[in-house]
């Protein structure tokens, strides 16, 4: 099956996990950026190569936990502290999406992590959104920016207070809300602030945290759940997200690398995506951090098809849910893009199943 030719979305993609490795190497050496992983002397001795950096930022399946996975962001964020670097990373990420036939891309990031060079969060968001708009037009990719508060800080902290103020503004591209980082505060702690923002909400849950976190996320207004792998730990929670038509943003390769719960095998043969589909839960397939996890949406779909024996109609459902769940406030534009993708994908997949459209409409009854 040719997954590259299919029209796809990536709804769960961290901007600071998408930097090209070659770009990081170039920025570090040219701008002499030092982190805890190397010294200025290492830079001057030309030690910061792609191979050197790859050992730090590329995730492995034998990592101990989420914290080891997150160390890569020390490097990627260090390369995203100036206007020039932010514009470059945003532009290159959207260009890569275009090459991979991703028609709609949602980039999430925390502006508070990009203020080390005297930029305010407001300036960071203006830079990122304008760069996203320009690249969206240039590469013909629909883009939404998901602005994240940090779960490391209290809702009333200066960092998060400034981030929450960003949702009151308008930007050249649509925005949405998420939370990022290791969890210290509960969703309920943010409930008051979340209720005051008027943008779509997606929340990380059911990854390092269990099914109860998924329930809490839905209860504070999440339309989508980042990961949601552990939803299967509660049939009641599975029923809730089915009834609410909550969409799961699943990221299989990342889920094996973070190793935060040990409830799925490294081979993904027991990954619950097919179980959720058969239950009537809307699922999408995403990269999480394409450079760090070294994956694309196409490679994830291929991997899941091999491990879970997905049928062409399963692929068509997953892709359609991606376009249907996109955070685009322009309903007409969103439906036009979904329909364009559906027609093309059905045509491509009909090579493997001549009855795929009939099967699709029959299967969709389960998700009503």
Automatic annotation (TrEMBL):
Enzymatic class: hydrolase
Record keywords: Hydrolase, Metal-binding, Zinc
Domain Adenosine deaminase: from-to ranges: 8-337
Alphabetized Pfam families for the sequence: A_deaminase
Cofactor: Zn(2+)
Its EC number(s): 3.5.4.4
Keyword Zinc set for record: yes
Top-level taxon in the UniProt lineage: Eukaryota
Family membership: Belongs to the metallo-dependent hydrolases superfamily. Adenosine and AMP deaminases family.
Protein name: adenosine deaminase
Natural source organism: Hexamita inflata
């Amino acid at each position: 099956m040719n997954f590259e030719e299919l029209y796809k979305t990536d709804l769960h993609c961290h901007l600071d996990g998408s930097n090209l490795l070659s770009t990081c190497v170039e920025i570090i050496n040219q701008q002499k950026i030092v982190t805890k992983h190397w010294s200025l002397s290492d830079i001057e001795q030309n030690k910061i190569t792609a191979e050197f950096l790859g050992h730090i930022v590329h995730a492995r399946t034998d990592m101990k936990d989420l914290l080891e996975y997150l160390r890569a962001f020390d490097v990627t964020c260090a390369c995203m502290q100036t206007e020039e670097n932010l514009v470059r990373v945003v532009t290159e990420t959207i260009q890569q999406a275009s090459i991979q036939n991703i028609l709609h891309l949602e980039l999430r990031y925390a502006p508070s992590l990009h203020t080390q060079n005297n930029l305010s969060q407001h300036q960071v968001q203006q830079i990122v959104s304008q760069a996203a708009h320009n690249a969206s037009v240039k590469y013909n990719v629909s883009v939404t920016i998901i602005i994240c508060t940090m779960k490391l800080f209290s809702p009333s902290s200066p960092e998060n207070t400034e981030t929450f103020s960003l949702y009151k503004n308008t930007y050249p591209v649509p925005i949405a809300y998420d939370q990022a980082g290791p969890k210290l505060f509960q969703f309920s702690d943010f409930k008051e602030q979340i209720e005051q923002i008027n943008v779509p909400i997606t929340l990380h849950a059911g990854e390092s945290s269990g099914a109860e976190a998924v329930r809490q996320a839905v209860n504070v207004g999440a339309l989508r759940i980042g990961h949601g792998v552990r939803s299967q730990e509660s049939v009641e929670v599975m029923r809730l997200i089915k009834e609410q038509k909550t969409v799961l943003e699943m990221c299989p390769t990342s889920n094996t690398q973070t190793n935060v719960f040990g409830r799925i095998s490294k081979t993904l043969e027991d990954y619950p995506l097919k179980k959720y589909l058969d239950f009537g839960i809307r699922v999408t397939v995403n990269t999480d951090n394409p450079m760090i996890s070294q994956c694309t949406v196409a490679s994830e779909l291929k991997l899941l098809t091999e491990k879970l024996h997905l049928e062409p109609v399963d692929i068509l459902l997953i892709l359609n849910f991606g376009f249907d769940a996109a955070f685009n406030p322009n309903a007409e534009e969103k439906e036009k893009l979904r329909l364009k993708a559906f027609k093309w994908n059905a045509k491509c997949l009909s090579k493997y199943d001549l009855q795929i459209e009939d099967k699709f409409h029959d299967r969709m009854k389960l998700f009503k």
